[in-house]
Each structure stands twice: as C-alpha cells, then as structure tokens.
Write a structure and sequence with these properties.
The chain is an all-alpha fold. Helices cover 77% and strands 0% of the residues.
C-alpha cells in the first residue's frame, strides 16, 4: 500500500518536472501493484491517491488513457463516499481539461465518469457543471443533449434542498438560452420539491431563488407570491442572525420587483431585529450587511431614502472593523454616483475607525484596502501616507507594488517620496 502511494506521488511529480519518458513504466508499476492491493484491507487511501494522480496526469498531458485508468481504479474503491468523491474529482478534472483545450472529447469523458457515480446528488452536480460549460459554447445540439442529461439526473436526487437548488440552477441555464418554457417547467419542479424541505431557513432560501428566476422570465405575480411565502418561512427561523440575512435578501427581491416601499419596510424590520442580537460581532455584521444593501439598492434604483438610511445605520455599528468596512463600501457607492465630496468624507471616517481595530492583522488589511482605494482615485499622496502606517513588510510590499503599477500608468513613479526605512531595497527591487 505504501509503495503504491509513493509510486503514485512519484508518478505525478515526474510529470510536473517534465520527465514524460518515465510515464509508461510508472503506469505499468502502478497497475501491477494495484492488482496486488485489491485484496488488502487498508487500501482505500492508496487507491484514491493512485486515481487522483493519474487524473492529474491526464489533465497535464491531455492523454485520455490516464483519465480512463483513474476512473477504473476509483470504481474499485470499496467505501462508497470515497468512491463517489474520487469519481467526482476525476470528472471535474476532465471538464477542466475541456475548458483549457475546448475539445469535446474531454466533455464526453467527464460525462461518462459522472454517470458512474452512485450518489445521485454528486452525479447531478457533475452533469450540471458540464451543462454550464457546454451552454457557454455555441453548439446548440450539444447544449440540449447535456441539459437533458442533467435534467434527468436531477429527478434521482433524494435530498429535497439539493434537488430544488439544482432545478433552479438548471432553469437559470435555460433562461440564459431564452428557453423560457423549459425554465418554467423546471421552476415548477423546484417549487414542488421545496414543499418537502424541512427547515425554514433552507426553504426560504430555495423559494427566494425561484422568485428571483421568476422575475427574470417576467412572471412578477409568481415572484411576489413566493417572496411573501418565503417571508412567512423566515419568521420561523430561530437564530436572529440568519433571520436578518434572509430578510435582507428578501428586501433585495422586493426592490427588484418594483416594491421599493416594501423593501424599505423589511430593511427597517431587519435593523430592529439586528439590534437585539446578543453577540456584538454578529450584531455588527448584520447591521453592516443591511447598511451596504440599502446603499447598493439606493444607487441601483436612484432612491435617496435608502441612501440616507444606509448612513443612519452606520452610526449604530459598534465594532471598528465592521464600521470601517461599511464606510469604505458605501464610499465606493457614493463615488459611482458622482457624489465625491460625500465619498471622501466617508472614506476619511473609515480611516478613523481602522485606527481603533485592536487586531493588527485586520487593521493592516483594512489600511491596505483603503490605500488601494486612494490609488484608484489617483490620490498618490494620501495612499503613500496610509502605506506608511502599515508596519507589516509583506502587506506594505504588496500594496506599494499596486501603487507603483497604477502610478506608472499615469506618470513616472518617484520611489524616494515614500518613507521606506530598512525595506527600501526590497521596494526598489520590486519596482
């Protein structure tokens, strides 16, 4: 068993190091040992490593025989979860090769391996990924063939939540192709399946997705019905944090369906609930989510009430990291709206909050994101000042490299303007 694992790894690295001449002899050795270890008790790990090594080599070399050999070994794995997971990985790697080469033979290979997976949800997942890839191409015949295969696979999934979600994903592919009749048929199947979902949070999530897709095909009436049903499910969600996140998503859907008053109402209710969350980190994260969503919707639907509401919520956030992040995010939104004065004020407030973040790692990450934002605004002086507040060399080098790259697109950068202390040589080398 150990010899087999060692050979498999050696086999993989010999390919990565560019020694393909040795492949055939390695493959012969692996096959010989595989025949021996079939009778051993502790063979699963060896078989998984063998199969995935062969599959990776198929991906590197583009030779189909390695994928086929990998699938043969994977099918001998006794433990079902390991067997299914390995076959799923092999199918995914064959599909990756198809993306890389645009060759249909690898798509067919991925589908062939997927069909051998005994787990309904894993098999359907692989076929759905294949359908997504094929639908991005122009060959209509192939698209219909793989979409039908994926659709057939969905019907075998026993777990209601997975089945409903995959019906929705498949419907989204049909919508992309403007095949609305088929999309509606799948959405009906998803809706029917959702009735079997036991937990309110998961059920609400599935219903939201069906509502979103219903809006895309112009069925506003069904979308609003589903949003309302989803809202009823959310009321039964026990944890306030998850209840708030569900309400925020429903608020987005109300806005997309033209019900802005309903959207504002649900965001206000979510804010009241978020304020009652016991743990401060969850409370701040929930409030940040509401504030950012209100600002995004205010921008997308040109609604001043939502923009003002997002600013109001910021003042209720106590955690410095969340406050800094939401101020930065809303500053970006105000910049997109051309409100540069307000945007700069929010960014300055974000910088103040960053200084109060106790954890060094998070503080540096926040400083970096603000510095990068000033770089995008071509405010080199402000960006350099912020970089000088970052004492971690790795983060400084990364963000300074970004500054140099952007600065060089507009003018010759002046390295000496930055206080570089001992790291000066590193920066110069980087430039």
């Amino acid at each position: 068993v150990h010899k087999s694992i060692a050979l498999s790894k050696l086999f993989k690295y010999s390919v990565l190091s560019g020694k393909p001449k040795e492949l055939k002899s390695f493959l012969k050795d692996i096959n010989t040992i595989h025949k021996k270890i079939k009778s051993y008790t502790y063979k699963t790990e060896a078989e998984m490593i063998q199969a995935l090594s062969l599959s990776e080599i198929g991906k590197i070399t583009g030779e189909e025989e390695f994928f086929k050999e990998a699938a043969d070994i994977a099918e001998d794995i006794k433990l079902k979860p390991d067997r299914y997971a390995t076959l799923r990985d092999i199918s995914s790697q064959a599909l990756d090769k198809a993306r890389e080469t645009n060759e249909i033979k690898f798509v067919e290979l991925a589908a062939k391996v997927a069909k051998e997976i005994g787990s309904d949800s894993d098999r359907a997942y692989c076929l759905l990924q294949i359908s997504k890839y094929v639908s991005s191409k122009d060959n209509e015949g192939d698209i219909d063939f793989y979409l039908k295969k994926a659709e057939d696979a969905m019907d075998d999934i026993s777990l209601a939540e997975s089945r409903a979600n995959m019906y929705s994903e498949l419907a989204a592919l049909y919508i992309q192709k403007k095949k609305y009749d088929k999309a509606m048929k799948l959405l009906k199947a998803a809706l029917k399946t959702s009735k079997r979902i036991r937990y309110p949070y998961e059920k609400a999530s599935v219903l939201r997705e069906i509502a979103r897709l219903s809006l895309q095909i112009g069925d506003k009436k069904q979308a609003l019905q589903l949003i309302n049903i989803s809202m009823e499910q959310v009321k039964d969600v026990r944890e306030d944090f998850y209840k708030v996140s569900s309400m925020v998503e429903l608020g987005k859907l109300y806005a997309e369906s033209g019900e802005l008053e309903k959207c504002i109402e649900i965001l206000r209710n979510a804010t009241e609930l978020a304020a009652l969350i016991y743990y401060e980190s969850y409370r701040s994260e929930s409030l940040r989510n509401i504030a950012t969503t209100a600002a995004e919707l205010g921008m997308n639907f040109h609604n001043e009430s939502l923009l003002k509401y997002s600013i109001f919520i910021i003042n209720t956030i106590k955690t410095s990291a969340d406050k800094a992040r939401v101020l930065r995010d809303i500053s970006i939104i105000y910049s997109k709206l051309g409100k540069n004065k307000e945007a700069n004020k929010l960014l300055a407030e974000s910088l103040k909050s960053v200084k109060d973040i106790p954890e060094e790692h998070f503080r540096f990450a926040a400083l970096r994101s603000i510095a990068e934002l000033y770089v995008q605004k071509k405010n080199w002086f402000k960006a350099r000042n912020i970089i000088n507040q970052i004492t971690d060399p790795a983060t400084r080098i990364q963000v300074f490299g970004y500054l140099l790259q952007k600065e060089a697109e507009t003018k010759e950068p002046d390295l000496k303007k930055l206080e570089l202390d001992k790291s000066y040589e590193e920066y110069t080398f980087l430039w």
